[in-house]
Design goal:
binds fe (ii) ion; disordered N terminus; alpha/beta; about 300 residues; 7 helices; globular; single chain
Length: about 300
């Protein structure tokens, strides 16, 4: 048993204040366990991991980030992990080995065909590595894979939803109504949504539509970080695009001269991953595990 030492200025009439007072005391008294009174969950989400440069900076920096920000749950978008185009089963498992709990993806999910056999290998196991790679939930019914993962970290249940936009992208099912359907079956309070979409308007709209019903809505796909992170009035943390984790001396990850050449010539071009100015882009979201409401969202950009 630990006796809480307080001073007379601290109002203990609200449990939240009691918890804060306990945390403050815990920081100055190493005898108390560091997680005493903890009711929040910290989520790190890493934006589209692009090719070997992206995978390498995650490998080099993830464990320090987890320690520095006291992260409980690590999520990432891995749709570009294989030289910019899709993800293979061994690369997914490498990323899990680095400490990522669940991988979301997007329009590049089918670029490496072996991902289909990987999805089929999950074989009903709800927590196998193959089951922890998601593809957008609003793809046509019957496609391989899943767009929702439900798990728990420690004793905190959580859910991850992957959606894809329809503006300037393939015409999949309606992501708004697919989200409604999924939310009917999810029991967890902590719910993370990756909206993989081209149009800022579509991502913003999904953020507002889901405000108060999920913990986090992040945008991915455009590979350029936006500076609009905020907690919406209903308690949903939001950002339009987390940004790519990969080479920024590029056009969204690809060698810039190839893309500029394609704009000039309009000829088919074989894309190659760039290598320079590698950065890791991510957000940290602090949320209350009892309500699923976000308290804070912080944007990170880590460079070598
Ligand atoms: Fe991407
Ligand atoms: Fe994408």
């Amino acid at each position: 048993m630990y006796r809480l030492v307080t001073n007379s200025n601290i109002d203990l009439s609200f449990p939240e204040k009691l918890i804060e007072a306990t945390r403050a005391h815990s920081r100055s008294n190493p005898v108390l366990p560091s997680n005493f009174g903890k009711t929040y969950v910290r989520i790190l989400f890493i934006g589209d991991i692009f090719g070997r440069p992206g995978r390498t900076i995650v490998k080099d920096r993830l464990s320090a980030l987890v320690k520095e920000h006291a992260i409980d749950l690590v999520l990432a978008n891995g749709e570009n992990a294989a030289a910019g185009f899709g993800i293979t089963p061994p690369l997914a498992e490498d990323l899990f080995e680095m400490g990522i709990d669940v991988l979301t993806t997007g329009n590049h999910i089918w670029d490496k065909r072996e991902i289909i056999d990987y999805f089929n290998s999950a074989d009903g196991n709800p927590h196998s590595p193959a089951r922890r790679v998601l593809r957008p939930a609003n793809y046509p019914p019957g496609m391989p894979g899943w767009g929702l993962y439900e798990g728990s970290k420690g004793d905190v249940p959580y859910a991850v939803i992957n959606l894809q936009g329809r503006v300037f992208m393939a015409s999949n099912d309606d992501p708004f109504r697919v989200a409604d359907q999924l939310l009917k079956e999810i029991k967890a309070k902590v719910i993370f949504v990756d909206v993989h979409a081209e149009a800022t308007s579509e991502k913003k709209s999904l953020g507002w539509y889901l405000d108060g019903r999920v913990t986090v809505v992040v945008g991915t796909h455009t590979h350029v970080p936006t500076a609009d992170e905020q907690v919406l009035p209903g308690g949903t943390a939001y950002i339009t695009d987390v940004g790519m984790t990969g080479p920024y001396d590029s056009v969204i990850g690809v060698k810039k001269e190839l893309i500029v050449g394609k704009f000039l010539s309009n000829m088919p071009t074989r894309f190659e991953a760039a290598t320079g100015d590698v950065r890791l882009c991510a957000v940290v979201v602090d949320c209350d595990e009892r309500t699923g409401r976000a308290r804070d969202i912080t944007r990170l950009m880590v460079r070598y």
